[in-house]
């Protein structure tokens, strides 16, 4: 029963680390997908007095995906209230040229400011409407959400690592007499601590398997996919190969490192 409690406490601690790590991964994927979605719907509007060389503008920045001229017909249609065809033709000639600039990704406020200044350097371009206020608000909200999740995940991981270290330390004290006797008979440190390392590896594997089962189940729930669909994104909640290998690697590395620190500390005390 005591052995089961030792395993259970370590498994739960490792499980909380893996859970925090996967939640952070999901949030990261969701933010990236949302940025891609924003980039598809976001565009700058460029106003020029004469037709611009689209190819030259594309060469100015790698951030620009495409530049398309906006037809003035829709604008004239809204203004058309008994205007003669001759005046409409004259209006088309006198109206400035409007261009829609699509970007490859959702830019940061600094990137947007630099791109705006870069476009305004062109002699034919008079104005660039970047919708900066709306853009800045959305971008800052994304960064704030990501920061909050990062701080939460980091705090959980640090606290859990301390708990695991304490639990392994307690386990070592319980077996201190056995390890000392093995030391008197000339057993090397790694052999005296073999059971500790075995405990760390076994619990790491168990925690990874439990995480695999939990997130596989959560990723199969339709209502979770619906929540992401409501905001217009679709992501992989849990990659059964890639994410599981990451979980397994993280849990084993954390367990082995903590066990190694405990063994080295015990050696110094002796």
Give an account of the 3D structure.
By secondary structure, this protein is an alpha+beta fold. The chain folds into two domains: 2-37 and 138-269, no CATH class; 43-130, Alpha-Beta Plaits, CATH 3.30.70. Helix content is 72%, strand content 9%. It contains eleven helices and four strands, in the order αβαβααβαβαααααα. A four-stranded antiparallel β-sheet has the order 2-3-1-4. The model has no long low-confidence stretch (mean pLDDT 78).
The gross shape turns out to be: elongated
Number of domains: 2
Total number of beta strands: 4
Question: Roughly what percent helix?
Answer: over 70%
- Main β sheet profile: 4 strands, antiparallel
Given the structure, what is the number of helices?
11
The termini sit apart by 30 Å
Low-confidence stretches: none
As a percent range, the share of strand residues is 5-15%
SSE-based structural type = alpha+beta
Features:
270 residues; alpha+beta; Alpha-Beta Plaits; 2 domains; four-stranded antiparallel beta sheet; 11 helices; 4 strands; 72% helix; 9% strand; elongated
Topology at a glance:
Layout: H1 2-41, E1 43-48, H2 54-60, E2 64-70, H3 73-79, H4 85-94, E3 97-103, H5 109-120, E4 125-129, H6 132-174, H7 176-184, H8 189-192, H9 194-219, H10 222-230, H11 242-269
Antiparallel strand pairs: 1-3, 1-4, 2-3
Short summary of the structure?
The chain contains eleven helices and four strands; from the N terminus they run αβαβααβαβαααααα. With 270 residues, the protein is α+β, with helices and mostly antiparallel strands.
């Amino acid at each position: 029963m005591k052995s089961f409690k030792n395993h259970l406490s370590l498994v739960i601690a490792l499980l909380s680390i893996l859970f925090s790590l996967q939640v952070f991964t999901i949030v990261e994927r969701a933010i990236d997908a949302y940025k891609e979605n924003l980039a598809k719907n976001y565009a700058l509007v460029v106003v020029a007095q004469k037709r611009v060389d689209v190819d030259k503008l594309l060469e100015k920045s790698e951030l620009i995906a495409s530049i398309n001229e906006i037809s003035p017909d829709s604008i004239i249609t809204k203004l058309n209230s008994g205007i003669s065809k001759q005046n409409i033709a004259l209006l088309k000639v006198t109206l400035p040229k409007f261009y829609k600039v699509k970007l490859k990704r959702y830019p940061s406020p600094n990137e947007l400011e630099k791109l705006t200044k870069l476009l305004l350097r062109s002699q034919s371009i008079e104005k660039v409407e970047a919708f900066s206020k709306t853009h800045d608000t959305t971008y800052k909200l994304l960064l704030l959400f990501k920061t909050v999740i990062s701080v939460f995940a980091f705090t959980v991981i640090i606290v859990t690592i301390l708990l695991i270290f304490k639990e392994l330390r307690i386990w070592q004290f319980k077996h201190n007499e056995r390890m000392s006797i093995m030391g008197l008979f000339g057993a090397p440190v790694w052999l005296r601590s073999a059971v500790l390392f075995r405990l760390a590896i076994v619990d790491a594997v168990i925690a990874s398997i439990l995480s695999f089962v939990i997130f596989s189940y959560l990723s199969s729930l339709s209502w979770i996919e619906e929540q992401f669909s409501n905001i217009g994104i679709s992501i992989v909640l849990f990659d059964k190969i890639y994410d599981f290998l990451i979980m397994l690697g993280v849990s084993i590395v954390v367990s082995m490192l903590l066990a190694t620190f405990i063994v080295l500390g015990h050696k110094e005390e002796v």
